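Q: Could you fold this chain for me?
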Amino acid sequence: MSDKVNILVVDDNPADRTAVQAVLERPEYYIETADSGEAALRCLMQQDFALILLDASMPLMDGFETARCIKQRTKSREIPIIFLTGVLLEQANAFEGYATGAVDYIHKPINSFVLKSKVAVFAELQRGRQELARWNRFLEARVAERTEALRESEERYRSLVEQAVFGICRATLDGKLLLIANSALAAMLGYASADELLAARSAGELFHDPDEHARLAEGLRQSGQVEGFETEWRREDGARVPVRISGRLHVPEMVELIVEDLSKRRSLEEQLRQAQKMESVGRLAGGVAHDFNNLLTVILGYADTILARLEPKDPSYAAAEEVRKAGERAAALTRQLLAFSRKQVLQARVLDLNTLIQEAAKMLRRLIGEDIELITNFDPSLGSVKADPGQIEQILVNLAVNARDAMPGVGKLVIETGNQPGSQVMLTVKDNGTGMDAETQSHLFEPFFTTKEQGRGTGLGLSTVYGIVQQSGGSIAVESAPGLGSTFRIYLPCVDEPVRKAETSIWAPESQRGSETVLVVEDEDMVRKLVCRVLSSYGYQILEAADAHEALRICEGEEGRIQAVVTDMIMPQMTGRDLARELTRLRPGLKVVFMSGYPGGPEPLDEDMVIVQKPFAPETLARKLREAMDAPV
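A: Sure. Below is the predicted structure, expressed as structure tokens.
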């Protein structure tokens, strides 16, 4: 905007216009001229003027008429008018001039000093108005900036509060009023909106225990702030929700609080405690399994030896058979504990779940009985998984038995397969039985937990399922409610490998015999003696060692004589796996059979390892050794 003062000179006499223009010829003035009232009005439509010098006597439209028109057309702003007149005005005309907007008169002939002086006054006023306008614009801009900054700050604060994952509120210290609350706090307490929460509750009414509110208020009064105050608030439905509160006094008798819902944290802490408890049981199971399975190997091995020598009609036959049955039951319990603790011996291979379930369906139908309908739904495009087929069958059996017991009378058991996002395969087993409440589900996979009548279950079925799934690299989820049945979903990692079919062969007792020299390595004397006795009875030449170092010495001294090694997997000083590596380095082509009560250590088992799981029957050991001896190098 120009800082010049715009002046309009209106006079029908060209000489007067030129004279006025000459007097006011200054850099700070801009002079515009008009020769009539109509011309003056046109100029006003095109430009603003700070001062008008108007001839009072003009033809057609005199100065007074022109002034009235100017005043009418510029109602929003008063433009000062100085009349130029060649005669002395009567008092009435003078008043008329002032009424039309005149601020002064200058008589003709014009005195240049008077003209300059009066114009200078109004020019200075115009500059003051311009400066004031500039300041007003500056102040308006600053106010607008501050207002916008304040609006943005309030918007950021509001957004921060509304989007916070914690509950935020402002309340009176006495708890009588809840002034502000965010959406997170409303959702935490079960309300549809913050407005609904504010209308329903005062701050004090949020506390389940009123004494807790009094204790919080006292802490705020004493220190002005509080951190980590844990208590329980009431949800809209009356349920309790554990919360942790931190806050400060905003102004006297008013507080701002940040409220954290501890429900999920408490749940995770409980899950952690549960996992630690289950891990402790697992470590206990793994710790005793090795020794326990060694004892069971001896018991079952000698029971089988006695039974092989007795006739069924012999009075001692029944006693030996009862010993064997008790040993098998103890072995089954040990296997279940090892499955739960994820320390069982798994011989995984790539398999097709659909085929495995189809093959197991006949057994499952006999297991659940005729009153329960078994339905299978298979995804034809199901991916392959790598797992121990025997353990997957164990999962199906355990879940089917639980489903059967949950469906007194008629029922329906559905087994389904399907691919899942993230390269997973899902196995679903669901029933329409009695279902389970939340409390039962929270203990579902604990060992020895059972809802069955005494004597009907060990409480290891589902803990076994849990352990197998975990050891196979998968996960398990349960959906159930009283009266609505139960659904177990098992997720196993999908593998991009061809399905490996199990090798099947029919063994005749005589085909299990051999004459090769076998080195037996076992640190437990009773087990070692049993293994040596069994293999000797099958025709093998036996060398024995009580530990890995003795086995290495024997192997170095018996050059070319030893064809196979049967070794325990868990031994002091050196594991069976490390021993096998040393022996095969010394004797390439040496055949190795491992005996194991549980794998121990984190190292995974190889698919081509020959393993006999303790406790084992004598013929099982002989067959596994023969398989290893006859396998191609």
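A (continued): The first helix runs from residue 14 to 23.
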